[in-house]
Design brief:
The protein contains 6 helices and 8 strands. It is α+β, with helices and mostly antiparallel strands and 164 residues long. The protein has 3 domains: 46 residues, no CATH class; 60 residues, SH3 type barrels; 33 residues, no CATH class. Strand 6 and strand 7 form a beta hairpin. It is flat, with a radius of gyration of 27 Å.
Length: 164
């Protein structure tokens, strides 16, 4: 136990042993919800500091919704309503913002029951934009951009990646 622990709330609760208990006005206040000395103010503040209590608003409503039927690893059938414009593919997963919070979730393509429907709703991405320039091509592009110069190789790469 440190010398200044009483200032930083590092005392242990005498009842349950949870760190962060405080004594004030002769009473022990504990952040543990199952403790007899539990104090809501300390418990809520501790949760906010640690990031465990995150209240999300449930007012996300998609403009172009799509329903994704999914079977999770436990074999339970789930149905998610997602915004079709936020769908994107990352390796073997589909990432989308879902109702009601607008939170992005990642779903394995192998477990999506209506995969064909979801795949058709994915925005079309050209192969050149999806892959992007290689390291060598980025080096050439960066050099000529920095020096405001040009070369036949640079022009060829610029034609291949016009938006880079």
């Amino acid at each position: 136990m440190g010398l200044l622990d009483f200032l930083f709330g590092q005392n242990k609760c005498p009842r349950c042993g949870t760190k962060g208990a405080r004594k004030s006005q002769g009473q022990t206040r504990c952040p543990n919800p199952s403790c007899q000395y539990f104090d809501v103010a300390i418990g809520a503040a501790r949760g906010r500091l640690q990031g465990t209590i995150a209240s999300r608003r449930g007012d996300f409503s998609p403009r172009s919704p799509i329903e994704i039927r999914y079977r999770n690893f436990r074999g339970q059938e789930k149905a998610f309503t997602a915004e079709s414009k936020t769908l994107r593919r990352k390796r073997n997963h589909i990432i989308a913002q879902v109702v009601p919070t607008g939170e992005s979730i990642s779903l394995s393509r192998e477990r999506i029951q209506n995969l064909e429907e979801v795949e058709t709703a994915l925005p079309e991405i050209t192969e050149s934009l999806k892959l992007g320039p290689t390291a060598r091509e980025r080096q050439v592009l960066g050099y000529h951009k920095k020096h405001k110069s040009t070369s036949p190789l640079y022009e060829e790469i610029r034609a291949k990646y016009p938006d880079w």
